[in-house]
Amino acid sequence: MTIAITPEKVPEARGVFTPELLDRCISCGFCLPACPTYALTGVETSSPRGRINLMRALETGVLPDDDPTISEEASFCLGCRACEPVCPAGVQYGELLEEWRDHLWNGRRRPFKVRPLLWAVNSPRRVRSMGIVRRHAGRGSEAPGSVNLMLGCFERVLYPRVSRAARELAAELAAPSAQGCCGALHAHNGELARGKQLAKELGEALPGTIVATSGGCAAHLAGVLGSDRVKEFSQWLFARDGAAAAKPPADDRPRIGLQDSCHLRNGLGVWREPRELIARVGEYVELPSAAVCCGGAGSYAIVRPKDSARVLDQHLDEIADADLDVIAVVNAGCYRQLQQGVKRRKLRTRVVHLAELLAGEK
Amino acid sequence: MAATATLSGLRGRLEEVVGSEHVRTDVGALVTFSTDATPLERGRPDAVVFPASAEEVAGVLRLANELGVPVVPRGSGTNLSAGTVPHRGGIVLVLTRMNKVKEISDAELVAVCEPGVRTLELAQAAAAKGLLFPPDPGSQSTATIGGNVAECAGGLRALKYGVTRDYVLGVQAVLATGEIIRSGGRLVKDVAGYDLRRLLCGSEGTLAVMTELTLRLVPAPESSGYGMAYFPDLADAARAVSRVLASGVLPVTLEFLDRVCIGAVEDYAQIGLDTSAGALLIFGQDGNPAVIERDLERIAQACATEGATSVRIAESPEAASEVLEARRAALPALSRLEPLTLLEDATVPRSRIAEMVDFIQEVAERHQLKIGTFGHAGDGNLHPTAVLDSADEGAVDRARAAFDEIFARAIELDGTITGEHGIGIPKLRYLERQLGAEQMALLRRIKAAFDPNGILNPGKLGS
After folding, report:
1. Chain B residue with the nearest C-alpha to that of A3
2. B438 CB contacts (<8 Å, ≥6 apart)?
3. What predicted TM-score, i.e. pTM, was given to this entire model?
4. What is the ipTM of this complex?
């Protein structure tokens, strides 16, 4: 048996992580019940506190870069940041995860499934050409205004109606199509510097306020450009309109649930606004897991489809139990995840973006 | 770590008991089970197992006896005395798969559950039937009920409702040697034999592994109300507490923050606290609304009589929530000051609180440390919290020296070195000073009777 050595001599730090970020965790474990992957496994190793201990082991050289548990947990984490609002010590877990993946996934170790995604959105020109055949709100000739709509990269291809709906609701939004990806995908998948650079470039292409219809993009952009300049659509619209009176209750009002965007809620603290806006057009139904990650989690659904589906299952159960007419989303990744899940389960519930919902009901 | 020859077959033998998917021996997993919520203490286990039943727990313990390998039972790992740190290696036995609430009976006022149920889940299940499970340690959202019983957790309601020990009616436990026993049951009155369920409560995983708990519940109070009072000095607040209790009022909440904590909370949360005050007392009552109103008035009166500079009774639930926020923010606020936070729980009789807190401040200054003290004014349970800069190399040693003095003083004042966190690893060296040599010897004989081969959480209580 080994004899306890306390306190353990701290070996030289390797500089993988910003020391102030890694030092913050006091190991209280309050994050455990908030973590979806801990809920799935019940194993400390797959919890935020466990992963921070793995990061510390990596930082001090106790575990090597190619340790299989390190690799697995860096990838298994959804990156939903649900651990942040419950943390009494204010650990910025999302930033630690970005640094972790930036170190681990450099070069050959990046999951091969995310490589083509990152390539596709790596230049504004490529992003623009992706959306060229779709009828999104962007206008090539349009100059940036004082408030600009971010078109997104995958969103403009997969859900072009979202930006059109946003413009219907807010004609003052300028939408020049000469804008690239915000870089969130890069930052979350091990290309932190590139992710920040893309955000800055977008900030130059769209001077003034930027309004994003995806919570994930908004949180990443706000992290780089500041939350004064960057607003998520529901946050911006709610601030613009104030607390407008809801329609009088009627029997035929649709029952509408919401899937929170994790980074919007946990990163930017925006959760009340989309609920208030929904209540204007229907009967808002709070699902028990509304605030829990749906498993879409950016590229997670593509990189780890099985785990992503396990995380989604509970949400589908709740949507079915509540017999919702509509489940509203505020992020492109959640949109795709729920659309596929609802289709697979053959539920009658429609999945729509909040902007589409509000525009459609106008 | 145990000898390699013993360990080579360990994984396979454990897999036979719990199934291969419930054994972890990868170094990464072992690293994450090397610590709990206690700073500075760590030790890497050789294996982590996740049993699903008392029979599987018994199988693991029999195997550990045969191989002479330590076993450390663990719930969510939130304890603050390194009770779940495997500092001698061996097997970490995680009980979180045993997480069923089996019964909540509003007719019998009992709950039956497995040890891996989170304490808050149990409390919520009881609340759904109009019942209250009173023990509410700060970690209740994460901590398991098995861990709370093993550590005899306290909480904010202890003055009025008591601690975990007061709610344990019966336990099913697996002895270190693998036999399964039951002590107590659903009865309020039961004096057949030694009170082993109470002995196991607070035994810190050193005597047996609890696999089912029968707990007492009480009817949920109708309502609750809160207030706060500032005092020029903590001694004034302490006198107010004595006056409250002497007036026939037994409040559900009596929490205090010292000057350092008030400043830290205000810097962090900016909720408008009066940072010129020497102490903040937060009080509360539950029960019938008329009784609450009367009691809060009496408490406010007692505070005013003892020199409170301002007293406020919360008129709405929102106002009450603001009042409680000051206490809730104490640990987060202190922990953000510096990277390393040492949270202790020396406890003294109520009448000695002011004396003790003054002493803590004097010690902190002498050792050049920042120590804020908050805690439970109603039961004398103090939480002196030292925040240390990790770049300050001598800080840990100075903090150890300071706590040596603080614990010695707590014992002198007829207090205890730990009110609710447990002895674990860091406080074992102070225990003899409090209990004396004869009682320490008795503890060791009790430990030997339960655990002849010394496999359960060795090097802690009873060692």
Report:
1. B88
2. none
3. 0.92
4. 0.94
